[in-house]
Amino acid sequence: MRKNLLLSSIVALFFSVPSIAETVNFPEEIVPLQVGDKKIEHSFFNRVDEVELTPGVYQFKLKYTDLYEQGYDDHQVIDSEPFWVTMTIAANTDYDVVFNRADNAVAAKVFAEAPQVSLQVKGESLGIPLAIIPEPNLSSGAVSPVATAAASTTAIASATTAQAPVSRPASNAPNAAAMLDFWWQQASAQEQQAFIDKVTKSK
Questions:
Q1: Going by DSSP bridges, is the β-strand pair 56-69/50-53 parallel, antiparallel, or unpaired?
Q2: The pTM is what?
Q3: Which of 30, 82, 172, 200 has the fewest CB within 10 Å, making it most exposed?
């Protein structure tokens, strides 16, 4: 009788353990603002830099914000407008959101006009670029929920089988930000400086 009771307790404990979620980590400069229709709460002392999700397709609202030194005792904050991307999260896989950080404030302003981020499987060297999508219609309520805690750096979301339709870009035209970043990486230091001078003069 005691053996059966012990076995039953072990089985009950096993089934009571919540399913393990996958983690998406964000760099300091990319701030997650919302998953579906659920906002992610940040505070001055507690910035959310990782989100735990069960496998599924999610629509994320993100923002780029960066800080650049301007001389000895001054700095400049570069911000983008909030933008939406779609992330597909696979089972048993953790991710990093990555981007190519600009070397200076001038280039950061260019990046902020059309930010480009990628979703990279943790431990791998290449990421998948995330296309910016139109702001989704969240009024239907058929969006995967996300629970956030003000005192925690982790937001937890649950995917459902009934996902909201994923918005797609209106055309298949090449992403200007991705092209700019690609050619920036190919340019020499002199060519990069010439581009910065041109952008600065056009302001």
A1: unpaired
A2: 0.60
A3: 172
